[in-house]
Amino acid sequence: MRSTGDGRVAGGAVPLCRGVGEPAVGQHTREADGGGDPADRLGYRGPTACAAAGITYRQLDYWARTGLVEPSVRSAQGSGTQRLYSFRDVVVLKIVKRLLDTGVSLQNIRAAVSHLCTRTAEDLAQMTLMSDGATVHECTSPDEVVGLLQGGQGVFGIAVGVVRGDVEQALAQLPGERVDTGETLIRHNPADELARRRNRAV
């Protein structure tokens, strides 16, 4: 594979964000909650989102106030209301944390987030983000990843599907809130169930 003149990588790897001041590929859109996936019918409060994404509440609050990652289920409106994040939001939060840890600028992360929000859950599951710290590329096949590495453009990679799985596993042990009724659900913890079975067997 080779780089083309416009910054794209031959074979389909798409730069999600370019240098400072250059537009990102894609435009921010939101998908309505309540689709076929049961996870879309659950929301997560700030502390839960922080725990699953591995970030501090201060980071969460700052990113929401600056519009980097806003809660798509419910924003904080006045005193007493709490932000409610969707499963996808929490995945994006974790990706932002990893991009920051590897030195990508907030401006480029903002462009990447806008692009991620236009992709379907299936797209995200197969996507790898590669970056040299200046440009973030979307790769959807091993060949594209190899092409970036051979071209010297990819320094680190984030397998979005793996991040999605990590978040799913973390949220499975944390409380969620039904979007339609507001009911708080204590998520099923397999370890707790095993302990209950052992206690009943004694």
Keywords, please?
disordered N terminus, alpha+beta, 4-stranded antiparallel β-sheet, 202 residues, 40% helix, 8 helices, single chain
How would you characterize this protein structure?
The chain is α+β, with helices and mostly antiparallel strands and 202 residues long. 40% of the residues lie in helices and 13% in strands. It contains eight helices and eight strands, in the order ββααβαααββαβαββα. The protein has helices at 46-53, 57-65, 87-101, 106-116, 121-125, 142-150, 160-171, 190-201, and strands spanning 14-17, 42-45, 84-85, 128-131, 136-139, 156-159, 176-178, 184-185. The protein has a four-stranded antiparallel beta sheet, with helices on both faces. Strands 3-2-7-8 form a four-stranded antiparallel beta sheet. A hairpin with a 5-residue loop joins β7 (176-178) and β8 (184-185). α1 (46-53) packs across α3 (87-101), α1 (46-53) crosses α7 (160-171) and α3 (87-101) runs antiparallel to α4. The relative contact order is 0.18. Residues 1-36 and 189-196 have low confidence and may be disordered.
